[in-house]
Amino acid sequence: MTLLLLSASLPLPLSQAADQLTSVTHSQNDSSLLTFGSQIVLDACWSPADLESQALEKKLTTQKRSPAPPPPSATCKNTLPPLSCHLQNSIHSVTPAEGRKLVALTFDLCEGKGELAGYDADIVDFLRASKVKATFFAGGKWLQSHPDRAMQLMADPLFEIGNHSWNHPNFRLISEAAMNEQIVRTQAQYEIIWEDLAKKVQGKGIDSREMNQIPKNPLTFRFPYGTCSEQALRVTAALGLPAIQWNIVTADSCQTQTAEKIAWTIVKRAKPGAIVIMHANGKGIHTARALALCVPKLQNQGYQFVTVSELLLAGPVFSTATCYEEKPNDNLRYDRINRKK
To answer: Which end of the chain has fewer CB atoms at under 10 Å, N or C?
Structure first.
């Protein structure tokens, strides 16, 4: 498939986006409905106390004492159809039909080489208590090191899990074969977690169709550092994963950031179809507190929170042929930093 490279909005009919996502859903759930999780599964497998935050869980550490387990083989049981042309570029936002005030909150769960990332359960606790939908872009290595938390997110109908590569390399600096391996191994690790959850459900008297409410693959992808190339976009398109960027940067991992500044940024820059980037792997400094400040304000303004895949169904996407944070070439510093590692 030829990659269509455009740097403007792509005003294709909503039906085309729906066809793409619906075809993915059909291949996974034999249903035309896009669903995430099962409250029945979540309630049966974990008590409220199991889901709540635990002491020191958010902390990031190193894996010097014990090496990380090997990743799974770069093969998947479930595959997705290649992307339609209008979804093949770096997607920054969506223009919802009829001016619907939809926003996608996204949280990265990345874990680098030699690193053991955390889990910011305070964020998840707030989202659950407020009935707010969100998307978590999880690295395969993070899924492997946090299997129970990964299963909880997978089972929760509020949440979608996207692919964030295996161990967070810069996709502008690795080969095409390495790109493919990074993505497919993460898809494979997700499958392992899904199957472990299915085993956990067995014997609990739950209708087997409940597991079919949980996607068998991540349906979206986010580039580490938000960096990509034409080659990288070809790889994600061939694997059927829309590359999700953002248009609201919270800088929640900056040591000098405050909850008030994060919340102010989100509220001030919010518009229908916006995608917000934050972190839930322990690198977000005051993210949970910021959500408590900004979510009620946005709700009072009439905004609804949706998963990324739901947002893609809401209207035409704004996408570009390159990946950037807020303006073209503003993330080139990561190339210099990553080359030194």
So the answer is: C
Phi and psi torsions of 106, nearest 5°: -125, 145
> Can you give the residue range of the structural domain that contains 30?
14-46+120-340
Alpha carbon distance 211, 318 (integer Å)? 33
Eight-state DSSP code of residue 9: B
Phi, psi dihedrals of residue 151, rounded to the nearest 5° = -65, -40
Say what the pTM is. 0.90
In a domain, 98, yes or no: no
Q: Note whether residue 79 is domain-resident.
A: no
Q: Is 226 left (phi over 0), alpha (psi -120 to 50) or beta?
A: left
pLDDT, tens digit (0-9, with 9 covering 90-100), for 39-74? 999 999 999 999 999 988 998 887 765 567 888 887
Total domains, the chain: 1
* CATH code of the domain in which 253 resides: 3.20.20.370
Tokens representing 118 are: 């955390």
Within a 13 Å sphere around the CA of 89, how many CA atoms are in the beta-carbon half? 21
Pairing of strands 248-249, 243-244: unpaired
State the amino acid at position 238 in one-letter form.
A
* Domain-embedded: residue 61: no
Place of tokens 């005003």: 11
Contact (CB, 8 A) for 134 and 305: yes
> Which residues, other chains included, contact 266 with Cβ-Cβ below 8 Å and sequence gap of 6+?
248, 250, 276, 290, 294, 298
> If pLDDT is split at 50, 70 and 90, which confidence band does 6 have?
very low
